[in-house]
Recover the amino acids of this structure.
């Protein structure tokens, strides 16, 4: 019996599947570079160099990861309730905008209180944006993807008008005046380890949120309801769980997370808002959530990985004339592969079965064929 | 006679359980071969292996004497093996023809004309009576099943697997189904049928392979074996088919439905001026042919469907305007008709499914925090009492349970919550005879504890076995409500057709 247990066939776990997507993405990038006549190893070296070669670069990579963690969590949280939050960009913008207004007009508030205020008000603004999508979905059955896209543009145009009215930079019209470092989330406490980098309190908030979200999803009745609604609406309804209410709550919390990402981005990382620019992070967050398998800890590591690519890609063009779009291509390929992760799961299962059969063969027992038990 | 299918020494393990342990199945050419076994015995698993959905850890498969490897349903198709799953796999807004030729025809454009002709021809040859142009969502479940059969025939399958084909059919449809199977066998097809209904095995099968807990118990000749013998062989003890119960001692009314009108999915009245009361300590059975308003009635009482007019009260309180949760909390339990759609969250472990109505209550949670140890302890008690079998106990995902065990889990959850009114729709669908005996006893016990039970079933046997009173529904109307001892199956059968004491009811 013990021997039979030993011979049990392996099944691919989601970590293995995600890692395969990463490797496949990197391989695709390498092939593309070879086709372009460049040296892939050199490109890898440059990306690593650009992202983690010294404390300043590490600090910047962490600062980039901050937003990605938060938006990845936002997307993952919505997804658990069966919702696709592609409104991260808009939620970020409104969150960042409100926080920036505090930065300009809220001077003199004691710093600890001030920090709490900007983070909370950013969360409320983003949460409001999420709430609207959730409400439209719950009450009028407007698909959240549609309302999210509309709200992204609504946010953009509100900011377009807010900047010249309240955050004027006399020298440039295309962006807001920059937030003074003293009013941002940057802190000497962190900067001393990563001098001259953009690192800020945001990363601490983001890590805390990883735990908070994991806690909500796994330990609370709220998380339980949300997951039930996401996994089987009909059963949730039958059991008396209020489906509409949970859709709204889920979108609101997702929006709040993206709102906080806006605070860390516009009042910590870039410290200014361009009038006419939709932040890409809202969409990158989807990739992060996908690669992280919508699991908070998975999201954390996926965000770090994407941050390395994003932070490192600047060195490509500067260092060797390699198009920095290569990094984006790698990201795109990884997204593609994480979305089609079933394929990898099958591939691994087939491989495992082959190994298993070989072992059996040695023992002179016959197996009936490769396995393809796909999880349903 | 030679074997057309031989599955030799098949073994298949799932985490924590050996679903098939050295099982051998041999099917002769042109025979109807039944597989009988308890819920979770490994029948569906064995058939999934034959159809290429799962792969055996060990063992050999021979088709027409030749050893084969079946890696996918496509391989199975190529070998002439077809399967009708318990849950049909049809596209609802496509026509019969489109559904059948889909995935079979090459090229990008569906050549429906030729397919249509072949379908008509096959339908006539086997007496399937199918219109190739009707759209799936407009035809009955029985018809849909025939479409599934046609799908196999269209692909030239001559080894046909049926996994619990009759669980979803009405008694009339079952009779027709038996005729079709006989016709197929006569044309030289070999048939494997999984069913829990021993009468059906008696009616069509020549031989029957009995398995228990993943192991082969034996192969019997159906004609010379009684149903009681087969049942005993499969569960390992004598099974009592008759429910033991004392006369009811009805108390006050628990459920009162007055002049209820409810719209169905087609936006016409599915329930018309319906009035009914169910008292504490009694079981009222609703008899009727499927689709005569039973689902709408139940959904209206449970709050899943809005009503047009009338009222529903529970324990004297008007619940017409209450939410589903409020109704549940007042003491309403519901074993739903569709276990996979409504009854369970298939991707949740069993323990999470057991608290789905009560997760906000103590001891399962305090101040919004779930208490996992308490939840698991409670769940463990349910699976033990109701004999819910699975690989990893309460930690198994609900979707990995066998069909019958999913059903037992739902029943266990609902009865354990001790509802004042239990609405049980087709409670024993898909259960083995041993489990049916147990569940029937539990329903009677629930009654005897002073609760009301409203039973909806399409099987007259079950209605007569359990009910103290029988309400007959036809076209959304209550035809009559009678004491069980004052009527018989013939009279109820007539009423189900809308005929009351010789008169037609409009
Ligand atoms: N994909 C799976 N993963 C894990 N366990 C499984 C899986 N499929 C089946 N099982 C387990 O294997 C056992 C046999 O299941 P199977 O579905 O073959 O039973 P069955 O004989 O068809 O029962 P029923 O009459 O209830 O349909 C069950 O205990 C079930 O929990
Ligand atoms: Mg089964």
């Amino acid at each position: 019996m013990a021997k039979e247990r030993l011979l049990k066939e392996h099944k691919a776990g989601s970590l293995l599947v995600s890692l395969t997507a990463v490797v496949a993405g990197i391989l695709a990038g390498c092939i593309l570079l070879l086709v372009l006549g460049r040296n892939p190893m050199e490109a890898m070296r440059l990306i690593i160099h650009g992202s983690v070669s010294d404390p300043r670069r590490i600090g910047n990579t962490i600062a980039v990861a901050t937003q990605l963690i938060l938006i990845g969590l936002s997307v993952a949280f919505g997804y658990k309730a069966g919702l696709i939050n592609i409104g991260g960009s808009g939620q970020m913008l409104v969150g960042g905008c409100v926080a920036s207004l505090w930065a300009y007009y809220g001077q003199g508030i004691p710093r600890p209180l001030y920090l709490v205020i900007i983070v909370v008000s950013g969360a409320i603004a983003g949460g409001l944006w999420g709430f609207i999508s959730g409400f439209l979905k719950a009450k009028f059955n407007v698909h959240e993807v549609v309302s999210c896209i509309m709200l992204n543009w609504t946010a953009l145009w509100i900011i377009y008008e807010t900047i010249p009215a309240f955050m004027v930079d006399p020298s440039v019209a295309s962006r807001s005046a920059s937030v003074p470092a003293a009013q941002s989330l940057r802190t000497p406490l962190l900067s001393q380890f990563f001098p001259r980098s953009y690192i800020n309190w945001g990363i601490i908030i983001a890590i805390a949120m990883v735990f908070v979200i994991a806690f909500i999803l796994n330990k609370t009745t709220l998380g339980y309801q949300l997951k039930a609604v996401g996994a089987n609406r009909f059963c949730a309804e039958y059991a008396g769980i209020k489906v509409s209410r949970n859709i709204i709550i889920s979108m609101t919390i997702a929006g709040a997370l993206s709102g906080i990402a806006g605070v860390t981005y516009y009042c910590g990382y870039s410290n200014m808002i361009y009038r006419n620019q939709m932040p890409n992070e809202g969409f990158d967050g989807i990739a992060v959530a996908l690669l992280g398998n919508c699991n908070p800890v998975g999201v954390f590591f996926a965000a770090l990985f994407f941050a390395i690519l994003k932070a490192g890609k600047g060195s490509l063009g500067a260092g060797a004339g390699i198009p920095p779009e290569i990094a984006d291509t790698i990201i795109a390929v990884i997204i593609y592969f994480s979305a089609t992760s079933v394929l990898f799961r099958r591939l691994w299962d087939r491989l495992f079965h082959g190994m298993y059969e070989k072992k059996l063969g040695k023992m002179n027992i016959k197996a009936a064929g490769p396995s393809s038990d796909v999880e349903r | 006679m030679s074997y057309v299918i031989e599955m030799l020494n098949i073994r298949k393990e799932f985490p924590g359980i050996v679903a098939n342990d050295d099982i051998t199945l041999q099917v002769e050419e042109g025979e109807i071969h039944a597989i009988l076994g308890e819920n979770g015995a490994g029948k569906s698993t064995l058939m999934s292996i034959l159809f290429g959905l799962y792969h055996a850890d060990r063992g050999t498969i021979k088709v027409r004497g030749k050893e084969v490897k079946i890696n996918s349903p496509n391989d199975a198709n190529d070998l002439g093996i077809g399967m009708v799953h318990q849950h049909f796999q049809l596209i609802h807004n496509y026509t019969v023809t489109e559904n059948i030729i889909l995935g079979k025809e090459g090229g990008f454009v569906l050549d429906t004309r030729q397919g249509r002709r072949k379908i008509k021809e096959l339908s006539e040859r086997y007496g399937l009576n199918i219109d190739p142009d009707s759209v799936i969502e407009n035809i009955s479940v029985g018809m849909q099943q025939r479409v599934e059969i046609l799908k196999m025939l269209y692909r030239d399958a001559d080894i046909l697997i049926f996994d619990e084909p009759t669980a979803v059919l009405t008694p009339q449809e079952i009779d027709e189904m038996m005729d079709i199977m006989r016709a197929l066998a006569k044309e030289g097809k070999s048939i494997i049928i999984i069913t829990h209904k021993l009468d059906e095995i008696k009616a069509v099968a020549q031989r029957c392979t009995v398995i228990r807990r993943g192991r082969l118990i034996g192969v019997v000749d159906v004609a010379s074996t009684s149903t009681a013998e087969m049942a005993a062989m499969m569960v390992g003890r004598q099974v009592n088919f008759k429910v033991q119960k004392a006369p009811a001692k009805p108390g006050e009314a628990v459920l009162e439905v007055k002049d209820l009108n409810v719209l169905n999915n087609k936006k016409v009245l599915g329930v018309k001026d319906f009035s009914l009361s169910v008292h504490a300590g009694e079981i009222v059975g609703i008899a009727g042919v499927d689709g005569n308003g039973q689902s709408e009635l139940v959904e209206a009482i449970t709050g899943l469907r809005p009503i047009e007019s009338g009222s529903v009260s529970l324990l004297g309180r008007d619940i017409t305007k209450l939410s589903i949760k409020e109704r549940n909390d007042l003491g309403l339990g519901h074993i739903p008709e569709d276990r996979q759609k409504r009854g369970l969250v298939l991707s949740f472990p069993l323990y999470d499914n057991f608290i789905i109505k009560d997760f906000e209550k103590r001891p399962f949670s305090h101040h919004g925090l779930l208490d996992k140890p308490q939840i698991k302890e409670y769940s463990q008690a349910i699976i033990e009492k109701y004999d819910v079998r699975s690989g990893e106990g309460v930690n198994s995902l609900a979707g990995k349970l066998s069909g019958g065990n999913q059903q037992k889990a739902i029943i266990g959850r609902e009865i354990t919550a001790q509802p004042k009114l239990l609405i049980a729709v087709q409670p024993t669908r898909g259960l083995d005879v041993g489990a049916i005996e147990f569940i029937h006893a539990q329903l009677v016990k629930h009654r005897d504890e002073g609760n009301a039970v409203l039973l909806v079933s399409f099987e007259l046997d079950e209605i007569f076995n359990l009910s103290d009173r029988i309400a007959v529904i036809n076209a959304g109307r209550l035809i009559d409500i009678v004491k069980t001892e004052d009527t018989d199956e013939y009279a109820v059968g007539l009423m189900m057709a809308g005929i009351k004491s010789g008169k037609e009811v409009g």
In short: The pocket of adenosine-5'-triphosphate (ligand 1) is lined by residues B 14, 17, 19, 37, 39-45, 389-391, 400-405 (CB under 6 Å). Chain A is about 75% helix and 0% strand. The CA atoms of residues 111 and 182 of chain A lie 9 Å apart. The two ends of chain A are 29 Å apart (CA to CA).
